[in-house]
Design a protein that fits this description.
The chain has 441 residues and is mainly β. The protein contains three helices and 30 strands. The chain has a domain of 107 residues.
């Protein structure tokens, strides 16, 4: 370490010189943005989405060889709005001269971004991915080609499935990297869709999917596969059951939840519903631990180990939401006997639980109500405007909800709902892919 003064202007000049040496038309801003995007990321440990801390993530970025030294300087010293980056021995006094202010138009800050998807009317045509800030700014949108479909988002990654079984990491500038393979291929005509149930981890670096391996009469053998950036696909769980198959259910903590779902179930389904036992799948050991009873229609697991589930109250037709956990045994909420219920989600601090109910009137006549239970006081309150469904929690404690054009009389789109019930419409899209944390200029 030399003690030499290195500021942003010097780093940018080095990058710009490297670009000129390369003799191509890529701009400094693109190189710098790509370096930042891959160097920084965040680790989500819990949902909603449990963002408890950030970690540095390094991924390979294709850049000119001549820019290596400049990029190394960025990696070591950082790239911020201040030029006061002076390397000194520990404990030595600061410089006497005042720092020289600089203006850095390419400076970026970490922001929470909600990743959404939209499709043309009547689902004819490929999906478009949208990056939306929490204040409603659309940072970018990218239409996918016919052979790609959105897989999920988390951390600093937006993952896309390709029909040859590969997984791509899509960036806001429209570029992407091939980060995995081994998923089932698809030859279905028309715009692509993911042919199996799949989920992406909270940090965006792993994904799981369920697949039926063999089926003979009522006997079904199925597997849960795990893959990730820089790893190879491997089997994490296997089951042989009658008319049931393993599939991912929810992934909000370090370990995903998987369900032993009845196969062939269809109809008018408003929520992410479990049609069989839901287990926590330990990715380190492959052990499966049941969460709630086998007939629960919706479940979730909190960061503090609390569990919640919805089931029909024994001996009645009434649905009951039950919460069990540290200091929570016996906490419950009665739900309407008719219609559907779901959207069950603990917040990151294990202090609140939300769920939604609907009379299931049918498209064009649908209504929803979101309720919140304060797990400290036990109080149950209606949360936010009518006809919204929960999607996920934000790191700041707000709930992401959505409304489709078939739900009530309100404006369709995505909403952020505060714990006091205040709601803000941030986009016209109603398909929430996930929450990411990205460097945004």
């Amino acid at each position: 370490m030399t003690g030499e003064h290195i500021d942003d202007t010097s780093l940018e000049a080095a990058l710009r010189a490297a670009e000129l040496d390369r003799g191509e038309e890529d701009t400094l801003g693109r190189i710098h943005a790509r370096v930042q995007e891959h160097v920084y990321g965040s680790n989500i440990t819990g949902p909603g989405w449990r963002w408890s801390h950030r970690v540095t993530v390094f991924a390979a970025v294709a850049v000119p060889a001549a820019a290596a030294a400049a990029i190394a300087a960025i990696l070591i010293f950082g790239h911020g709005p201040s030029a006061n980056n002076v390397v000194q021995p520990a404990g030595s006094p600061g410089p006497n001269a005042s720092p020289r202010p600089t203006t850095n138009p390419t400076a970026a800050a970490m922001q929470t971004v909600i990743v959404e998807a939209s499709t043309p009317a009547n689902l004819v045509g490929p999906a478009t991915v949208h990056w939306i800030t929490t204040n409603g700014t659309e940072l970018a949108s990218r239409q996918l080609p016919d052979n790609e479909a959105v897989l999920g988002a988390g951390g600093s990654h937006v993952l896309v499935y390709r029909t040859d079984g590969h997984v791509l990491d899509l960036h806001m500038d429209g570029t992407s990297q091939d980060v995995g393979s081994g998923m089932p291929t698809s030859t279905a005509p028309g715009p692509a869709s993911v042919p199996v149930r799949a989920l992406v981890s909270p940090d965006g670096r792993q994904w799981i999917w369920g697949q039926i391996v063999t089926q003979s009469g009522n006997s079904v053998t199925s597997k849960i596969w795990l893959d990730g950036i820089g790893t190879n696909a491997r089997t994490m769980a296997q089951a042989a059951e009658d008319n049931h198959a393993l599939e991912p259910y929810r992934w909000a903590l370090a370990n995903p939840l998987v369900s032993h779902s009845a196969i062939g179930v269809g109809g008018y389904i408003l929520f992410n519903t479990a049609y069989g036992q839901v287990d926590e799948l330990d990715l380190a050991t492959g052990k499966q631990t049941p969460i709630g009873p086998a007939d629960a229609s919706a479940v979730d697991l909190a960061t503090n180990g609390a569990k919640t589930y919805i089931e029909v109250n024994p001996g009645t037709t009434t649905k009951l939401l039950t919460v069990n956990g540290p200091g929570l045994r016996g906490l419950s909420a009665t739900l309407p006997a008719t219609g559907q219920a779901g959207g069950v989600m603990f917040d990151a601090g294990s202090n609140h639980l939300v769920f939604a109910t609907s009379p299931a009137n049918g498209p064009g006549h649908e209504h929803f109500e979101t309720d919140m239970i304060d797990l400290i006081s036990g109080a149950r309150t209606k949360l936010g405007p009518a006809d919204l469904r929960p999607a996920t929690w934000l790191p700041d404690g707000r709930l992401v909800e959505f409304r489709t054009s078939s739900d009530g009389d309100g404006v369709p789109g995505t909403y952020l709902v505060s714990l006091d019930g205040g709601a803000t419409n941030i986009s016209p899209y109603d398909t929430v892919v996930g929450v990411a944390e990205l460097l945004v200029p």
